[in-house]
## 1
Amino acid sequence: MKVLLTNDDGITATGLNVMRQALLEVPGLELAVIAPDSNRSATARGITIRKPLWVEEVEFGDGTTGFATDGTPVDCVRFAALGLIEFVPELIVSGINHGNNLGDDITYSGTVAAALEGIMLGIPAIAVSQQADHGEMDFRAGNSWSRAHFEQAAGFIARLVEGLEDVPIPAGTLLNVNSPAAEARGVKVGRLGKRVYNDRMELAEEDGEGRRRYTMYGVEPGYQHEDGTDFAAIAAGYIAVTPLHFDLTDQAGIDRLSGFELDRLLRPAAREV
């Protein structure tokens, strides 16, 4: 199997490199790495369209190399599809992210965005994220990470990739995987939960010329406590696996809107006399 590994924390991130080494041990796997040259967390599905992108080949110190770019995680997947590496990937693995990507977090996540780009291109994908060792249910989990934080998730994903032919992943679907801080009690498949963001706007600085700087993010978010969600699985100490796809169409909404005569909105409005 030909696999592209990418992330949004950058090519030197511990999570990516633990995942890289685990994948290299999978028999018959051919691995390429393309990742941002520095942290691109919370870039979501951003792409770089107004400037050329730098690419640099980097050595990992174990005889293997990868590519670092000043682009986004989605740019990294596009690079692979357009010929930067010697093969077209058969699987995208994005991560291991430093911090959870649960519930509504996925809409901001560069980690999940890279996996979404894979399925848009017809390539199966796995996004994988790691809860912080102090158990925060948060994707903004700080920068102090050791190899040990990621070894459980890396081992699970490597085994999953090795047995992927036996895993029933529908076409056009990615797996969003989150690993708990402690030793996992098992694996639970569930739906996305509902994140509760506790953000507030606070004045940080004024420059005396009418400009003000604000902070808007940083308060630890919460979540709705519901059974069967990815939040519930992580809170209970399980690896959470959530299948995701890209079809955002509200079919019920189409059915409802089809009952209205929307053509009439093109006609001049009737005027009262």
## 2
Amino acid sequence: MMVLPPGKWWNLRLADLWPYRELLYFFIWRELKVRYKQTVLGVFWAILQPLLIMVVFSVIFGNFAKLPSDGFPYPIFAYVGLLPWQLFARALSDASQSLVSNQHMVSKIYFPRIFLPTSSVLAGLVDFSIAFVILFGMMAVYGIAPTWRWLALPLLILAALLSAIAVGLWLSAINVKYRDIKYITPFLVQMWLYATPVAYSSALFPEKYRPLLGLNPMAGVVDGFRWALLGQEVNSSPLILVSLVTIAVLLIGGLIYFQNTEQTFADVI
């Protein structure tokens, strides 16, 4: 296939990716094999990690700090918030290093480089699906039944993935030129966790200021998960809408920046 030179900065040319779609599937499969190769716990780590964090949050924030949990038992309140957050955090960390980790490929052959951070994000769906199964048991224990709101889950999962892809595109492209991103990303993820209502409820913020919390794209996603899975009655609609707009802006900006710097990756990396 002919490799065309970059067009206008606003022309994303996403249709050009379709002929390479099988390569994306390969990258996802390779990411999964590398992730679980020579591991003791393997896929069980996808269950243990959110469970252990949920226990720590329950002890510190639920028992000692007595943070409100919107009328729900704190363990399941925290676990529902951790599900999309773990998907985002792991995907963001992997995506930010995806180009540098595959520099031998980036510098030698042509393929859509956007597939590398994207595959790192999409591979996280396996861990997410495994951890989600535990939620069914917790809901049965606490007597929480599924409702029609569950129909919104695919859209909320998509929002979490797009959020990770958006930020991952920015960080992976910047990381090619400035390797400090490798050290900044763990700190960024940690601070982002504190800024996201995972361990606490968004209801702690005055309602008139709550939409500002939506400037954090994951704030709306976490609140959306609690609304869909637990039937949370906190008025989160403005927060969620602002988060969706923020995700769209970050994604479009990330695609434009990635495309306009992609031609320099092979030389700089």
## 3
Amino acid sequence: MDKHNHAESSSPKNLAWAIAINVVIVIAEIIFGVIGRSMALISEALHNTTDIGSMALSWWGEALADKPQTEKKTYGYKRAEVIIAFVNGGVLLGVSGWVLIESVIRIFHPEQVAGLTMFVVAIISLAGNGLATYLLQAGAGKNLNLKSAWLHAMQDALFSLGVVIAAVIIYYTGWNWVDPVVSIAVSLFLLKEVYEILSESVNMLLDSVPEDLDFEEIKKVLAGFGGVVSVNDLHIWQTGSHDRFLSAHMIINEMEKSE
């Protein structure tokens, strides 16, 4: 079995492991985030909570994508990948926005944070999220759906790393404002990736021409075939990361009948 096929077959199992890891992390972060009054831990727990749902959607999307086409759904369920990626991207955008607003408020009204508790939980979270990111990395290049799940895991790993750094600073300096600043920095860093997933999924949903294809060049090639008079009503679109289609109305010269 080649590397690509291995990544495809292991993706659902890796998603299941990533979901289980996130459930454990969320429970720990909520409990100790409330006890330690850490906005960074609580915001990270919310991220992980949305990730559980998003990864579950991704797992479901992978199962749907393998279903064959029917008389009613002639393209099969390939579009499920794009729809789920769009939903995941929207959730990421919404949660990041909430974290940004809440963190800005915390900068002006800082609260006492238990640095040591924050540090211990963040280390555990970093290890778990790092493992989840590693498990999902193999399938991230397969399609947009798995890429969005991988991005969720990577986002949480970066948040965990930021919380670890903030916890060390708070423990030794008492600067509680570092807690929300870290949340803001990580959220801003990841907004670009979120935008790219949303932009790509919207383009697919609108049946746009794939970005790596030149519409005019393809039309020119088709028009250059022998006997072709003109190419009209050309459409190029994709229903998933690896499923591309083309339709066109082509006028050709009348062919001579062979005797």
